[in-house]
Design brief:
The structure is a homodimer. By secondary structure, the first copy, chain A, is an all-alpha fold. Chain A has two domains: about 45 residues, Homeodomain-like (Arc Repressor Mutant, subunit A, Orthogonal Bundle); about 140 residues, Tetracycline Repressor, domain 2 (Orthogonal Bundle). The first copy, chain A, contains eight helices and no strands. Chain A is elongated, with a radius of gyration of 20 Å. The N and C termini of chain A lie far apart (about 70 Å). At the A-B interface, helix 7 and helix 8 of A face helix 7 and helix 8 of B. The structure holds a DNA duplex (18 and 18 nucleotides).
Chain lengths: ~200, ~200
Amino acid sequence: MARKQGSHSDITGPKVREAALRLIARHGYAAVSMRQLAAEVGVQAGALYNYTPDKQALLFDMMRDHLVDVIESFDRADPKTDAQSRLRAFVSFHIRYHLPRADAVFVAYMELRNLSPENFAAIEKLRRAYEDRLEAILRQGEAEGAFAMKDARITTRAIIGMLTGFFTWYRQEGRLPLEEVEAIYWDLVCKAVAR
Amino acid sequence: MARKQGSHSDITGPKVREAALRLIARHGYAAVSMRQLAAEVGVQAGALYNYTPDKQALLFDMMRDHLVDVIESFDRADPKTDAQSRLRAFVSFHIRYHLPRADAVFVAYMELRNLSPENFAAIEKLRRAYEDRLEAILRQGEAEGAFAMKDARITTRAIIGMLTGFFTWYRQEGRLPLEEVEAIYWDLVCKAVAR
DNA sequence: GTCTATAATTCGATAGAC
DNA sequence: GTCTATCGAATTATAGAC
């Protein structure tokens, strides 16, 4: 006999996040209503407001938590040795970390327009912090004489764009195993910044 | 004395497209109401339905027209000679064509989720047709011995991703003139596919 | 072709019972 | 913590006057 009411804070809380991420990734923040989200979670619309003060905070919290986790995870994965090793670790980390989190990546990338100005500024700061990790590696490589490029900042954006585009199509083409895709991207990045 | 009513089909038609592109690029399709759009154009909401059967068709028509124009324009710009020259022309065309059309690029890229299934299929076909142009150039370069890469299809997506990421940040950083940005991207692409 | 007015829904968010 | 019920406002799209 299923209860119609009761306390499920520990269960419902994560379910709200997961459902919101899935629905917003698929349909977009503005297109997903609180009623749709509630139905996906299996509660009534009013109950959602036990877990978020409003719809905007729900979006912001998901994006912030994702980006904070990306940065902390990379800092742990970074070998902090020579630039070549660090760049390889970055490419591998970026692909492998983001792949199983496609919904979060998609939301963090596509929903910037729907953040309030203050929330947008906070998210942009985090995004920039992640990009700065890559830029620092490229500049170290230039200093070591391992890399050569015309402009480290633009090369940073180019590499991130190249790697992030990956997640917009990988789900469709199951043609190649992850190891090969990773090798292909490493080959491109490695040659692009080579002396 | 401004008229409050009257026929302005030739004026209002283009204004609807321009305003829709601008508003949707900034706020997203789902977040822009027909009333907002009408206010931007300078008419009442009901008048918009003289120019589109519904909101969905307005989005689809803009995306389709943009992509058809991209493909036709590239086919005219393509030197159709050696792969190296063609690749350089592609990079230059892609940057220069898309730069002054940032709103259309943004909409065509970000609003795929808001297309009906049939409209999505049609737009994906066009997108694929453009990507196939680049893939053909890369395969020609392999055949000529000018390029070497592990996988032409994935390299195609990687290059497009890299070039398209360009438009998400160029407006912010006016630091460098277009010629230099183009040279930086050409350097990266050229080295990435070099033998 | 544009207007005003409105039908029919749907939205985010809240109040109060349990 | 979840429910039901609801407020007030916004939505797409249409009807009919001019």
